[in-house]
Design brief:
Blueprint lengths: L1 E5 L8 H5 L5 H10 L4 E5 L11 H8 L3 E5 L6 H14 L4 E5 L1 H5 L2 H5 L4 E3 L4 H11 L13 E5 L2 E4 L31 E5 L2 E2 L10 H5 L3 E2 L2 H13 L2 E6 L14 H13 L5 E6 L1 H6 L1 H10 L1 E9 L3 H6 L8 H11 L3 E8 L6 H14 L2 E6 L7 H7 L22 H19 L2 H8 L4 H25 L4
Parallel strand pairs: 1-2, 1-3, 3-4, 4-5, 8-11, 11-12, 12-13, 13-14, 14-15
Antiparallel strand pairs: 5-6, 6-7, 9-10
Helix pairs in contact: 2-7, 10-12, 15-17, 18-19
Cobalamin binds next to helix 1, helix 2, strand 3, strand 4 and helix 7.
């Protein structure tokens, strides 16, 4: 069969995508099991700068019989469903499938909006079995395919959940050759991404990853090194590890020892990749030698979820961090000349004005790129589940769940928060230090990142205005 795997149309809030265009690794991974028996095309819309999507153009040129959408951000839901409806109206025979975080946790709107099947959780084996069924290659009964959700006689059927792949090493490598466009973040050469693990051993209350992946599993170092060899052979020079937390201090999985061995092997293998990873602040503080090894292995930037700077806020988030750990982590990374992409949550429920003020003050100080997003209840997180149950639930409109809207209930308070949020962002972007970082910084990655941040901010403003004028 001809199968198109795609991402949602690009939307104005995709600031991360504007600043940091990453390849759709997940689609390349899903394609691998299918490609020997089916014809696969990947269409990644998240990398578009000036238009939303090319779906209808691609349907015409490729003629897919199945289209699989990856939806991991709530705010995409409405647009994806609208596109699904339009596809069904024009091409009723195309089978529509959605996978990723949102259809895993929310079913009704997708099934009412034109989707035929939803894939919940880990997708590789479920999608493969579903496609084998749809193509007639397997005679399995639809009700026996674990991990899918669909409608039968207008009733939603949720099949048995699919267990996780026990040994991640058994997965074949992602089909990166199917990602048509290549790009670079830092100017060293083409960028790609890779996984070292799935899941997270922590349990922050705003995050859905622990609920989505259920438990932390890792790829072996041998498997990762083999993939690195392959990637090098394909000509890639820049690499991002997609892992939620590249190192875990919980005594299992991606332990500091495992990762230290990996870094040593990468250095010894002279891979010469420029790497980016996500790390927790406490892990950085507890493993200073590991950060040195990371730099020697080629890590040039780290995404750290600093989130907040007061003990009360960090406790509310169940982040497991203590005060001052963020400052120390920042110092260690800077000593090692590693650029800090510092992520922060703003206006977390029950945060005080003081907490928010500190987020802005110290966030700017301890990050090389200060990323501030509005608290957004994320489908599948502990907080989302709590808010969903309220009578006047603030999480009913998926459009609002875009990391820029304040969804807290009291309208008057919302306006106040929005104003503080905008002022916080302005105080970063209209700051002489940030401007001078974009012009010159001794760490060229900080300079380039700051320039990208301005590009993202400018595009965000333009698209937001066009949207208000209903032109986008
Ligand atoms: C790469 C990435 C991006 C890229 C996307 C690139 C692209 N071209 O698609 C970019 C940089 C654009 C991006 C942006 C954002 N991201 Co992001 N991103 C990731 C990241 C690091 C890796 C995704 C990945 O490949 N994972 C590995 C694969 C194997 O897992 P997977 O994607 O879940 O796919 C599996 C299943 O979900 C399923 N599946 C997925 N899609 C499909 C489709 C079909 C048809 C089927 C059948 C199955 C299926 O099968 C796959 C294989 O098992 C994840 C973190 C993570 N570790 O996953 C965050 C993550 C997905 N991002 C997240 C967030 C919050 C964002 C932003 C909102 C950040 C922001 N504030 O700006 C933006 C939103 C973007 C937007 N509006 O576009 C959150 C989502 C939170 C949530 N919903 O629970 C995550 C989980 C990070 C986190 N821990 O908070 N992101
Ligand atoms: S925010 Fe990061 S550390 Fe916390 S649960 Fe999510 S992935 Fe894990």
């Amino acid at each position: 069969m001809k199968i198109l795997l795609t991402t949602p149309p690009n939307q104005y809030f995709n600031v991360t995508g504007f600043t940091f265009r990453l390849p759709a690794y997940n689609l390349a991974q899903l394609a691998t099991l299918l490609k020997t028996e089916h014809k696969i095309e990947i269409l990644d819309n998240t990398i578009n700068l000036f238009h939303a999507h090319d779906i209808f153009k691609t349907i015409k040129s490729f003629g897919p019989e199945i289209i699989g959408f990856s939806v991991s951000f709530g705010a995409y839901t409405k647009n994806v469903i609208e596109i699904a409806r339009n596809i069904k109206a024009k091409y009723p025979r195309i089978i529509l499938i959605a996978g990723g975080r949102i259809p895993t946790f929310i079913h009704e709107p997708f099934l009412a909006g034109g989707f035929d099947y939803l894939v919940a959780g880990e997708g590789e084996n479920t999608l493969y079995e579903l496609v084998q069924h749809l193509s007639g290659k397997s005679k399995s009964n639809i009700s026996n395919i674990k991990g899918i959700v669909y409608k039968k006689d207008r009733v939603i059927e949720i099949n048995q959940p699919r267990g996780l792949i026990e040994k991640l090493d058994d997965l074949p490598f992602a089909s990166r050759e199917l990602l048509k466009k290549r790009y670079s973040l830092w100017g060293y050469g083409d960028l790609t991404s890779i996984e070292g693990s799935r899941g997270c051993s922590y349990n922050c209350s705003f995050c859905s990853q622990p609920n989505f992946w259920k438990k932390l599993r890792v790829f072996s170092n041998e498997r990762i090194l083999k993939e690195l060899e392959l990637i090098r052979g394909q000509g890639f020079k820049e690499l991002i590890f997609n892992d939620d937390s590249f190192v875990s201090d919980k005594g299992f999985g991606n332990t500091p020892e495992k990762i230290a061995n990996l870094f040593k092997a990468i250095e010894k293998g002279k891979f010469d990749f420029k790497l980016g990873v996500c790390l927790r602040a406490d892990t950085i503080c507890r493993n200073q030698d590991l950060i040195k090894l990371a730099r020697q292995a080629g890590v040039i930037w780290v995404n750290v979820g600093f989130e907040s700077y007061t003990s009360d806020s960090l406790k509310l988030m169940n982040k497991g961090l203590v005060k001052n750990v963020n400052a120390k982590a920042s110092e260690i990374l800077r000593e090692n000349n590693i650029m800090i992409w510092g992520s922060h949550v703003f206006a977390y429920p029950k945060q005080t004005d003081y907490d928010m003020k500190m987020t802005i003050k110290y966030g700017k100080k301890y990050s090389d790129f200060f990323r501030l997003t509005m608290f957004t209840p994320v489908e599948g997180s502990i907080l989302f589940e709590k808010l969903k149950k309220l009578d006047d639930s603030p999480v009913k409109n998926s459009d609002d769940l875009n990391y820029f809207n304040c969804v807290l209930q009291d309208k008057k308070y919302q306006k106040k928060i929005m104003l503080k949020f905008i002022m916080g962002l302005l105080s970063y972007y209209c700051n002489l230090k940030t401007i001078s970082n974009a012009v010159y910084h001794k760490n060229r990655h900080v300079k380039l990142m700051t320039r990208r941040a301005y590009l993202g901010a400018i595009l965000f403003v333009i698209y937001s205005v066009l949207r208000r004028l209903k032109l986008n």
